[in-house]
Amino acid sequence: MTVAKPRTTYQEAARELLRETLFGAARDQLAERPWSEITMVDIATAAGVSRQTLYNEFGNRNEFGQALVLHEAERFFTGVEAALRENFGDPREAIVAALERFLLAAAEDPLVRALLSDDGTGGLLPFVTTRGLPIVSWAGERLADVIAEGWPELPPADARLLSETLVRLAISYVTTPAGTPAETAAQAGHLLAPFADRALGRG
To answer: Among candidates 105, 77, 86, 104, which has minimal Cα distance to 163?
Structure first.
């Protein structure tokens, strides 16, 4: 028996569209100047809505900033996780593909790069540290869950170590590039794949 999925109501769809429009407006603003210089009026104007509509949806600027960061992080890491899943059969390829996807997306997306490399002057740093889960912990936990999904035989401690190492390496390469995304990912795969093979009992 097939269970029908709950239908999205008009109100839910309208709210989702509003939020995506507001996030898109904020992304456009952030491509031109740091968060510290952007007001709620700027975002509302760019989105073509009233300031009151923006406040009704998010409450205040800090709440909007946190929601924006979570939205972008979800969008960004969905692609990284997909790269892992597409290569579960080969740990080396999975590591290389996930890291390359991460580096390519960060290089192409100014907001993601700003989130990962903010030194405190851009105004976004608190949203990925003190006002929410630190981005390293949040991303590490997400990747550890995906790794456990694909390689259930991997000890949980090793899954966490591998995922955190991948995240920390990726962020360090975003802030201080040492080569192209493909070259960097290949080097990381060469370094980390033997660990994954041994942990999986394949080495």
So the answer is: 77
